[in-house]
Amino acid sequence: TGTGSATTGAFSWLYTTSTAIQAVGNSAGAAIGTANLGTSQLRQYNTQLTYTNSPCTGTPAPGNTLAPATVCDGASVPLSLQNATIGTGVTYQWYMNAVAISGAISSTYTIPSLTASASYYCEVTCGGNTVASNPVLLNPSIVSALPWTEGFEGLAIGNDIFPSCWGFANTSSVWNIETTPVANTGVNSLGRTWSTDGWAFTPSMALTAGTSYRFSYYMRTQDTTVGYDVTTAVGNGKTALDMTTTLGTPLTGYQGPSWNKFNFEFTPTATGNYTFGIHVVAPNPPNGINFDDFT
Questions:
Q1: In whole angstroms, what is the distance from residue 75 CA to residue 116 CA?
Q2: What is the rounded distance in angstroms from the CA atom of residue 25 to the CA atom of residue 16?
Q3: Could you give the CA distance from residue 92 to residue 121 in angstroms, rounded to a whole number?
Q4: Which residues touch 288 (CB under 8 Å, ≥6 apart)?
Q5: Rounded mean pLDDT of 200-208?
Q6: How many of the other CB atoms lie within 10 Å of CB of 248?
Q7: Which of 15, 81, 246, 254 is the most exposed place for a label (fewest CB within 10 A)?
């Protein structure tokens, strides 16, 4: 509402229009006669606000540095500030372990890949006054307590749904959390179907040089005529290129309608964080392959 002309005064109303056909009256038949049809024009009114931003004044109060509660090893991490500093002329500089991060001069910052514990904060400057946000200490989530197990229980049924800090890569088709076929134990299992090509990666695990570790899982197929190529590998990240060490002998054309356990031995030459991966390939459309009970 307001005074003056809505089209020629100090303000104007804007609207979008569309024409709709509406039926009016009654009809006892399958069709409504043209006499009972009418047209109406729908108008959707919009409000347009214009404002001018003024230079910032006073002392900034950025508050806490905000980050996700759980940070996976090697994952990107978005950082932001609890409080905004209003006005023009505000500058930002993000720091990691008290060292300025080159190019990190916006109100938000995304860590490309967190692989070690580090402290982050941001200095906010307004009118010559500089205040640092309260730092946040980030510790990447790494499996350090062994033995480790994963049976996919408690996850929603759907595509490309994984437990926390798992990873995946799909060239064709997707990963599925499934209840059919019957899981090895529990209710859920991890599967792929049809013509498929994809990797699944476990969370990162802290392993010690010279110590022998056994990685295992259960696997079964739903197809008795077309097999799957399955490769198990290990490396220092969650991409196909990170899988630098193949474990055991890759399976070619594998078929096995019953759950079978597969064991792989790995002795790292250097202490560090390692991820195990499974690569499944099938050039034709078989019915499916499933995995369960990783240890």
A1: 11
A2: 28
A3: 10
A4: 181, 191, 192, 193, 194, 221, 222, 223
A5: 98
A6: 15
A7: 15
Whether the CB-CB separation of 257 and 181 falls below 8 Å is answered with no
Q: 250, 251, 181: which is closest to 221 by C-alpha?
A: 181
Query: What does the alpha-carbon distance between residue 29 and residue 32 come to, in Å, rounded to a whole number?
Result: 7
Residue recorded with tokens 């179907």: 193
Instruction: Tell me the three state secondary structure of residue 35.
Output: helix
How many C-beta neighbours within 10 Å does residue 269 have?
8
pLDDT tens profile 137-189 = 999 999 999 999 999 999 999 999 999 999 999 999 999 999 988 999 999 99
DSSP 150: B
Alpha-carbon span 215 to 234, nearest angstrom: 10
* Percentage, residues of the chain above pLDDT 90: 75
Residue 199 has pLDDT above 90, yes or no: yes
Task: State how far the alpha carbon of 138 is from the alpha carbons of 44, 52, 134, 270, in Å.
Answer: 48, 38, 13, 24
Structure tokens at 179: 């209840």
- Contacts of residue 65, defined as CB under 8 A and 6 or more positions apart, other chains included, come to 79, 80, 81, 82, 120, 121, 122, 133, 134, 135, 136
3-state secondary structure of 240: helix
Q: CA 74 → CA 26, 117, 118, 166, 242, distances in Å?
A: 66, 11, 13, 11, 12
